[in-house]
Amino acid sequence: MTDAPGSRRARRRTVGIAAMLVLAMGAGTFAAVRSGLLPFGGTCRDGTVRLRVVAAPDIAPTLTLLAARARRDAVKSDGQCLDVKVTARAASEVSASLGAGSSDSSDFEVWIPDSGAWIGLADAGQESTQVTDIGNIASSPVVMGALQAQAKRLGWPKKTYTWAGLTASAAEANLRLGAADPARSATGLLALAMVNASIAREGGDTDTRTATVAKLLAQHTAPADEAVMATLPGDSTKGEADNPQRVQALLLSEQAAYEHNTTDGNAPDLDLFYPKDGTTVLDYPYTLVDPDGASTEVERGATRFLALLQSSGGMRQLAAHGFRPPEGDPVATVLAKAGGRTPQPVDERAADLPATADLRRVRTLWRITVQNARLITVVDASFSMAQTVPGSGGQSRMEVTKASLLQALSQFTEDDEIGLYEFAAKLDGSRDYKELVPAGRLGDSTPKGATQRSRLTSAFGSLQPVPDGATGLYDSALAIYQNALKSYEANEFNAVVILTDGANQDPGSISLGALTAELKKLADPQRPVPLIAIAIGPDADKAACDRIAKATGGAAYRVNDPAEIHAVLLKAVVAAASGATAS
User: Fold this and answer.
1) Residue 284 to residue 305: CA distance in whole angstroms
2) For a Cys staple, 95 with which of 119, 122, 152, 343, CB 3.0–4.6 Å?
3) Which residues contact residue 515 at a Cβ distance below 8 angstroms, ignoring those fewer than 6 apart?
4) What pLDDT is recorded for position 44?
5) How far apart are CA 59 and CA 322, in angstroms?
6) Interval 481-538: pLDDT, tens
């Protein structure tokens, strides 16, 4: 599958599309079609060419109207009448299907997702179906809409925000802010990516701050764009306004706001904020699916339908349903009805589509933050953890580590599973490790009423360095990794997280070479359990941690201050889940 470049303009004009258009209709004919001057109609002397189009649900109804008009007017391709059938299908599902080379791709010749992001996010493996992007038919900025009372509280329309500032202000104002699932919606994913980039420009702990925004959105997330729009109040009554299940603000497209404001009856209107550090857009690429396998008449028919959509008549029809032209120029009537108003930066040119690697990372961060994870945490209890951390007011490495782990624990949801081990040479008889809290859902309770979260909080707090305890790293890593494989949970992110401040000091343990060889044999790509090692302080054997972690598909990190553990842990989990290389 062809990866989507970052620049929208780069995709719009290619040698391939120019050549196909010349072959299909001739350069002069195409120019006439684009200007709306070519009369469509007449008899179909050479029969009918049938074209099957799968499109994103938001634009599919408009395309259906244009396809019906083409049939009514007997629009032709090489003398044959054009018969186009449009089917609405979620772009995320089509992307996954094409990326896997599914036979579903034989059901259609043209795919129009809401964003070129889905082209790049599809797995480009050997079995993937070829997709060729030959133009764009519309655009719509990704923005934040708020009910008018809440928008006024945020200073609309005069006050402008960055993406980071806007979501932070919404949180401070206790707005119920919703979004479509970034794992399945381009709108949700692009908005979260813009928030992440905005936070990164401000500096500081980007992943943790983005995860905080993700947790806020997760409280009011719906599977798809149309579903999240249904979470807005249905009318202006106090009961609807006070309903905790009804959102007060949404990350959405300008077109979705237009549809809401113009068609949703008694529902209160939205006002739109356009972040001043740039908005990206839904860009609606027109793509040919498996073009090498298409007949010449189908290929030319597909090009003919694109010309119809890009004609002045097609653009007028799309604008009537709230879409901007492909170039992203605002349409005054659309803008006003959608809820945009100066001085919001509505006239700014859209930012390029975020890079595919950035989108993958943000989507992984979302999944790790709001979906289930199963982490086995392993803490070094050797006596070196009693050493004082400079600048900590006399606290030991263990004390600062415990505080950081408790902070990290707060980032996980009630459905996440966390367990805890400690290790030191000969800690539990002949064993170098001891299980303190078996892995379990943080929200689950024991018969006595204690939750898993409270058990872990207590266990973290009771961790103490073992007097004269040496670092029994290698045997502990192997045994605990084997246990984690046995208790693997499908449909969750499984990982082992080892925190150590020293080098292996158990002379009777397995060697580093034998350990890494055994871990490589145990690691199963079909049941991945990456081992994440966090080397604390200058005495930790980072090189050994690197070898141990990489043998399982994980990675090692060094922190000189244990207080950094909670931030590094989140980065490490995201990197392991997305297959990124760690530092």
Assistant:
1) 14
2) 122
3) 474, 477, 478, 548, 551
4) 65
5) 10
6) 999 999 999 888 899 999 999 899 998 999 999 999 999 999 998 899 999 999 998 8
DSSP states of 330-344 as a string? --HHHHHHHT--TTS
Distance CA 500, CA 361 (A): 27
State how far Cα 35 lies from the chain centre: 39
DSSP string, 505-559: --TTSPPHHHHHHHHHHH--TTS---EEEEEESTTS-HHHHHHHHHTTT-EEEEE
Distance (Å, whole) CA 386 – CA 578 = 35
Burial class of residue 370 in the structure, from the number of CB atoms within 10 Å of its CB (0-12 exposed, 13-18 middle, 19+ buried): buried
User: For 149-175, what is each residue's pLDDT tens digit?
Assistant: 999 999 999 999 999 999 999 999 999
Considering just the CA atoms, what is the radius of gyration of the chain in Å?
Answer: 28
Q: What is the pLDDT of residue 320?
A: 96
The whole-number pLDDT of residue 104 equals 59
- Separation of alpha carbons 39 and 47, rounded Å: 19
Count CB atoms within 10 A of the CB of residue 438.
14
pLDDT at position 42 = 53
User: How close are the terminal C-alpha atoms of the chain, in Å?
Assistant: 30
Cβ neighbours of residue 28 closer than 8 Å, sequence gap 6 or more: none
Three-state DSSP at 487 gives coil
214 Cβ contact partners less than 8 Å away, ≥ 6 residues apart: 182, 192, 365, 366, 369, 370
